[in-house]
Amino acid sequence: MQGEETDPELTAATVRRRIVTAAAELLRSEGLDAASTRAVAARAGVAPPTIFRLFGDKDGLLEAVSEYGFETYLRAKGELPESGDPVGDLRAAWDLHVRFGLDQPAYYTLVYGQARAGRVPRAGRQAVAELERMIDRVAAAGRLRMSVERAAAVMHAAGVGTILTLIGTPPEQRDLRNADAAREMVLAAISTPAASSSAPVSAVTATAGAGGADEAGSAAGDETAQAAMALRAALGRGDRSALNAAERSLLVEWLNRLADAGPPSVPDA
Question: Which helix (H) or strand (E) holds 248?
Answer without folding.
Answer: helix 245-259
